[in-house]
Amino acid sequence: MSDFPSKVPSPLPDPKGDPGGAPVGRRVLLGMLGLGALGVAAGGPIQDVVAKGVDTVAQNDPTGLSDLLPGNRFRYYTVTSNTPEMDETTYRLRVDGMVDTEKTYRLSDLAALPQTRLVQDVQCVTGWRVPKTPFAGVRLSALLDAAGVSPAAKAIRFRCFDGAYTESLTLEQARRPDVLVATSMEDKPVTHAHGGPVRLYVAPMYFYKSAKWLSGITVTDEVVPGYWEQRGYDVDAWVGRSNGRDDAPTV
């Protein structure tokens, strides 16, 4: 998933927990801090390798200690213990449901389409915020137009290849120009830990709406609440106007 809601109603797990993980010991913590320091000191290819290592460690860290890594601006959450990694040979994004023509996209297909780059704050419903974060990819509206949406359609349901996470938007929300099928984050390909190779990015909403590991876009005749929405969180998750929070808009 992209984000973990705060004030989670029972029996949901603590946002710092991961039922599939194991405690991180002193040696691992020191190793993480050393890895982060190396990334700060290094540049170019070395820094990229270090960043990938930080992603891997943080994704499997149930303690939240990886938040202390230098340069680590995000927290890492998932609702499953293991998610397969996908690449050009294995990844597919399917657009189906109430459309004239079902579509399937490879990474290269998405890259060949017109790209949009947005730079806005990321706001988690747990309270943390990452300012001025670049995302780039294909506008969701472009994929919907290519498939031909039925006049009777009203909403979109998103599926993820972790096998568990889902999300939803109304059709009007999905057609906003600041909703992307993103393949780039912070001007680099979206890493696996951040939901790559393709994730949803819904700029004006709390980050749990920006589903990681996106694999399916289904056009429906009604809103189907997503994973966390089925557990008590707002379907219309506008930043500062939902979930009982008053955060500033992500502009």
UniProtKB/TrEMBL annotation:
Highest taxon of the lineage: Bacteria
Record Pfam families: Oxidored_molyb
Location of the region described as Disordered in the Swiss-Prot/TrEMBL record: 1-23
InterPro entries: OxRdtase_Mopterin-bd_dom, OxRdtase_Mopterin-bd_sf, TAT_signal
Residue stretches making up the Oxidoreductase molybdopterin-binding domain: 82-228
Name of the protein described by the UniProt record: Molybdopterin-dependent oxidoreductase
Protein species of origin: Streptomyces coelicoflavus
